[in-house]
Design goal:
Blueprint: H1 3-16, H2 30-38, E1 46-50, H3 57-61, E2 68-73, H4 76-86, E3 93-97, E4 109-115, H5 124-137, E5 138-149, E6 156-157, E7 160-161, H6 167-174, E8 178-189, E9 195-205
Parallel strand pairs: 1-2, 1-4, 2-3, 4-5
Antiparallel strand pairs: 5-9, 6-7, 8-9
Bound molecules: S-adenosylmethionine.
């Protein structure tokens, strides 16, 4: 799928479905938060939630002592949903409408979080662009918390094909310069009760 189709697809999803009615909806992004806390981002850390969409992770990050929080998504509609939910607190968040496969200029972060975005990159050149972007955007010593469908997870999501990973294959995609720190599994339950095995992996940039 090319970048234009990708954008149209996700804008349509967020304009036609309730944020709480999509398969990936979580009332609490518990494991993401645990893993973010486990790498003890320094006081004043710069954090980006990539493909954050309408996730509640940003609400919880605002409760941590971070100095800069950004939420990036392809869909401006998704980010509007998040802005409206946050109300006044939205002024403390940088919202970035961008495609992670198109090498946007993002600045520097100490922590990169991605739940359920990388696995949509089914073309090798998009995955290489993503890996280059993580390298370029993470400060040395910074961490990436990346979550994808696990090897036994669904082969499609939101009518799109996905790639599935274990920690080793995900590490290979990121390439040299990243060390696997820890991994975890989670079975996510969709709003209609389907079980979806996810992999979570934490990497440190050397
Ligand atoms: C399955 S949803 C996950 C949303 C959120 N991370 C969560 O856990 O609730 C995937 C999100 O990634 C965004 N997305 C998909 N492809 C993207 C890309 N190439 N660049 C940036 N965002 C993208 C979509 O708009 C959507 O919000």
């Amino acid at each position: 799928m090319n970048a234009t189709c990708r954008k149209t697809h996700w804008e349509t999803i967020y304009s036609t479905k309730a944020a709480t009615g999509v398969s990936w909806y979580q009332s609490e992004p518990q494991l993401s938060l645990e893993l973010i806390r486990s790498v003890a981002p320094p006081r004043g850390a710069r954090i980006v939630d990539v493909g954050g969409g309408a996730s509640l992770l940003v609400d919880r990050l605002l409760e941590l002592p971070c100095s800069a929080i950004a939420v990036l998504d392809l869909s401006a509609t998704a980010l509007e949903i998040t802005k409206n939910r946050l109300g006044d607190r939205a002024q403390h968040v940088r919202f970035i409408v961008a495609d992670v496969a198109l090498s946007p200029e993002l600045g520097t972060f100490d922590l990169w979080h991605d739940r359920a975005v990388f696995h949509f990159l089914t073309h090798a050149h998009d995955r290489r662009s993503y890996a280059n972007l993580v390298s370029k955007s993470l400060a040395p010593g910074g961490h990436a918390v990346i979550s994808t469908f696990a090897l036994d997870g669904p082969s499609r999501c939101s009518d799109l094909e996905v790639c599935r990973y274990n920690a080793q294959s995900l590490a290979r995609e990121l390439g040299q310069g990243f060390t696997l720190v820890t991994e975890a599994q989670e079975t996510h339950t969709t709003p209609w009760g389907a079980a979806q095995p996810f992999l979570y992996a934490v990497f440190k940039r050397g």
